[in-house]
């Protein structure tokens, strides 16, 4: 076994330099040069240059003039330093109670209309940046009322920010919440002040 | 369920298999030391490894020597990684200032990454520094995968050889697989993934001021570089706690498709590489056919299970009560079902949705796919090696039934090989069920479970299945970062990795000495549909018989409880 020691130690150290040092360095340099925005985290900045979020990371929004995201199990909700699903099993009473209270909360602003499953379930990451087009549609009247906009104008902005499934069958159609909210603010800037 | 979902599942599984074919030919050339188009760049690096380490790459080792080299390399890899984890606090690239990790977590994590399991008792973004993630974990992502590939290379030589002594050189197999196969593919995939949205930088985190005016801390990391090898090397350990459900690791359906293919494609490539190197392409094609049939059936069961009415949604009166708990909007149930089958059929263990929140039969099928031995296609090389062991067993069983001489790929199968095969196959249920039973009766063992009732037992069973099978996925509610769980899961990973490896190398050592026989009238054909059926039967019966009683107490009973709950509404 002793004659195995030198190749084991030397090759492991060389591998650590090559794969643990050079490889991530090359990838970071190449990625940063070719795709700086993505490498940085797809951040969105406002006119003052402050970061308002990442298009890939959901955030809590509670103002009625904004699209709201799915429930989140990451910390107190959308804790982007501690991603997590709920891990509740299908028969867990906590899940059953949570879903029924989420349904009640949605019914306060959308008394009618089918509630889609994503509206009352937490995502795997707890950071889901997107919702289904059906969940977005449920929120149109609330947003229109809060902003004094036509419902059709709100729907149009949502439709512009809806992505289809890739090639029509890979993944799901979805609406990016932060991008849509920024588009709503851009369409009607005065509504950004909280009423 | 809809046609889109079925089409997506078929495409993902099919593309991974199809891409494995050309990659397998390349992998076989690398194992056989044939020339490749990467030689001008990589030959000098390869020579540097040999000269610095004092290795003669052309010296063919006997199975004991090959095994000793493998164990020595993995042992030192473990020691180095354990030291890095313990000393994390004083090592560089630690902008968040994370302290060294506890002894039991360091043991568990070091074993986990050295054994290609990537079980994670910790949340990445809240525990590990950039240094640990890169120099420690990313490095092991590569070399543990190459260790698995080496087993298949050695076994292929054993079947190809005619009365020979050596089964190849471990160091050459390790270095060549890493440099020529894993590294170039990882660089290309990592850079492509950055372009598609995966984050890659060394900042501590980003602080955003949200539209609501509150502050959000967003963890970032050198993600793409580890993500690429985590998938290609069939490792599975995420930078972030949510793994490939995290939008920074898997931002879109397109990245999901690419990384899902990457979970399986080098596993299949090792099948085809084995076929080419062992001069047994047709026979290995039969094994791959059996594998993809079982994997496809597993994916179909998971998809169907997740489309069933979820009790919580039914109770709340949701019109379309599909189980979106723990799943991302962009993926939905079809992408998550395909991924769940691929990650458990291969010994990957990354997840793009939370398995703990799956329907009972969905999570149960994920568990069963691991219990079948990680051969669908399993890890790179380790999968085909155990699949060949299954084939030996099938030929042996058929030989007993019809009185033919059992031989496979031109080598006689005798009592000794079957004994080694049984050691490789039986250690897995022994560890899985043994540690599960021990934990149930151990004081405080059940305190780590998160969900009550039968689902809690499923959490426990899933954990030891995943660890022993070197998969690494989890029913994530479990709080495994306590000494009992870290220690027992670490031992399960070691048993499930190295005992089958030694047994397979022993089979290789025994086979390589035997004369290569030409097939005769008495040889059982091992390329026929009949043989594929027999092999599928052996795999499923072995898996089902060993685990059915345990599964009956977990997912199966929970399934009937779900049916009852849904009917009550």
UniProtKB/TrEMBL annotation, chain A:
This is Potassium-transporting ATPase KdpC subunit. Its main location: membrane. The keyword Transport applies. Keywords: ATP-binding, Cell membrane, Ion transport, Membrane, Nucleotide-binding, Potassium, Potassium transport, Transmembrane, Transmembrane helix, Transport. The lineage of its organism: Bacteria, Pseudomonadati, Pseudomonadota, Alphaproteobacteria, Hyphomicrobiales. It comes from Devosia sediminis. One of its GO terms (molecular function) is P-type potassium transmembrane transporter activity. Part of the high-affinity ATP-driven potassium transport (or Kdp) system, which catalyzes the hydrolysis of ATP coupled with the electrogenic transport of potassium into the cytoplasm. This subunit acts as a catalytic chaperone that increases the ATP-binding affinity of the ATP-hydrolyzing subunit KdpB by the formation of a transient KdpB/KdpC/ATP ternary complex. InterPro entries: KdpC. GO terms for cellular component: plasma membrane. It comes from the Bacteria. Belongs to the KdpC family. It is a single-pass membrane protein. It is found in: Cell membrane. The system is composed of three essential subunits: KdpA, KdpB and KdpC.
Automatic annotation (TrEMBL), chain B:
It comes from the Bacteria. Coiled coil: none annotated. Keywords: Cell membrane, Ion transport, Membrane, Potassium, Potassium transport, Transmembrane, Transmembrane helix, Transport. InterPro entries: KdpA. It is a multi-pass membrane protein. Its main location: membrane. The system is composed of three essential subunits: KdpA, KdpB and KdpC. Belongs to the KdpA family. This is Potassium-transporting ATPase potassium-binding subunit.
